[in-house]
Amino acid sequence: MARRAGRRGRVKSHGWPRLRYTIPGWGALNVSAGTPRRRMVRRLREMTRALIEEGRYDYLALLREKEITPLRLLTQLGGGSIHTLPPAGAFRPVAETVAPWIAGLTATARHKVNCAFHLKRLLALDGAARPADFPGLLTRLRVADEARGAFRSYNYARAVALAYLRDHGGQRTETYTQTLAVRVLPTTRKRQGHPCTPDEAWGLACDLGLVWGRVWLAQCLTGMGNEELWGAWSTEDGGYHIAGTKRAGRNRLVPALCALARPPLGLEAGVRLYRKALRAASGGKVQPYDARRTYAKWLALAGVDRVHQDALMGHGPATMTELYQRGNVAPYLAGIGAQLAAVVRAVTPATRARVVATFGAGSAEAEVLA
Predict the structure, then answer these.
(1) Helix 306-313 vs helix 290-301: angle between axes, to the nearest 10 degrees?
(2) Is 122 in contact with 134 (CB distance < 8 Å)?
(3) Which of 10, 29, 84, 359 sits most deeply, having the most CB atoms within 10 A of its CB?
(4) What is residue 82's DSSP assignment?
(5) Over 80: is that where the pLDDT of 195 sits?
(6) Beta 239-242 vs 27-32: how paired, if at all?
């Protein structure tokens, strides 16, 4: 093919240069360089030879099948070496890998639904997007969410995008670095927690009434979250065995101060009505999670040592020493229950009378205060 050098290092020809290699045991590679610049073509050939020497047949296959261009691969490589390249699967369209990625997450069902939702928001901007497109998509989503005031929603989408990239190439890739550089949106300060005193907690239970009052007390007396209370828990060794839903440390044993009843309805409908009732009874000051804060406060007031507090709350040990100190909580459960019961019973006669009037003289709630 006739060629002659032009200005600015360009090669004028009837077609762009091609990358032609025959690889023993694999086959032939014959793709267009995608540029007429001699210097760039030289870099592309050096990159291709490096891929062959390192045995990166996954990327050679992508080039041969034209799933990625040599220029795009060179851009992805940046200033790093072939060793910094993620697996070739990282260049597959995101839509093809979302479902298996979410299915493999070690997370709650709700978090998986949220991850799928936010990845769908990103793919709505470009249905054929690949991981390398995430920085640009996230920048566009940031502008749109900032305009409508959805700051937390954008930050959640950014976190999901980073998690996806971490699992599809690692944190040392150029795409991950560029996505991380897309800034978060400033959010308003989080609401302060409202742990209750025994008088406040029992009084609020009376205001909630028989059904939701028992749900509130069950959380205050065990430290269970919504998904745990509506989920799997059972009596065991004189206490309640709670099947945690967030992490292995949330699978725990707590003292049984009174008999608990299963909450009404399903998780979604039950929590929605419970949250609404709690907001109305407390004037908007208390939320369901404040029951866990209340339980933590009562454990501290009861004088329970910090290692056992973490175990009863379902918090993982911060150090190996704490892990060794924790051991089995079951032998200490009766003593911890007695300490905690002393705090729970420290209410005024007026509060005690309200509890009896609301739940009945022979109820499990009245027996706790007896």
Answers:
(1) 160
(2) yes
(3) 359
(4) G
(5) yes
(6) unpaired
How many angstroms separate the CA atoms of 24 and 17, rounded?
A: 23
Q: Provide the 10 A C-beta neighbour count for residue 139.
A: 14
DSSP per-residue string spanning 245-259: SSSGGG-EEEE--S-
Q: What are the b/e assignments for 259-276, b being 16+ CB within 10 Å?
A: ebeebeeeeeebbeebee
User: Residue 10 has what DSSP assignment?
Assistant: B
Tokens found for residue 352: 């005690």
Q: What is the pLDDT of residues 261-307, one digit of tens each?
A: 888 888 888 999 999 999 999 888 889 989 999 999 998 998 888 88
Nearest to 242 by CA among 256, 221, 228, 263: 228
The CATH number of the structural domain formed by 198-369 is: 1.10.443
Quick: pLDDT tens for 3-35. Answer: 333 444 444 444 789 999 998 878 899 999 888
H or E segment to which residue 32 belongs: strand 27-32
d(CA 285, CA 303): 27
| Helix, strand, coil shares, percent, the chain, to 5 | 60, 10, 35
Residue ranges of alpha helices (H) inside 104-257 are 109-123, 134-147, 151-167, 174-181, 198-208, 210-222, 226-229
Q: Distance between CA 38 and CA 32 in Å, rounded?
A: 13
- Give counts: helices (H), strands (E), the chain: 18, 7
How far is residue 223 from each of residues 52, 267, 292, measured CA to CA in Å?
58, 17, 5
Where exactly are the structural domains of the chain?
4-79, 94-181, 198-369
Q: Is the pTM of this model over 0.85?
A: no
Q: What are phi and psi of 356, to 5 degrees?
A: -65, -40
249 within 8 A of 315, measured Cβ to Cβ: yes
Residue 208 backbone phi and psi in degrees, to 5: -75, -25
Beta strands in 262-365 (DSSP E): none
144: number of Cβ within 10 Å? 12
SS3 12: strand
Q: What does the block give as tokens for 72?
A: 């795009």
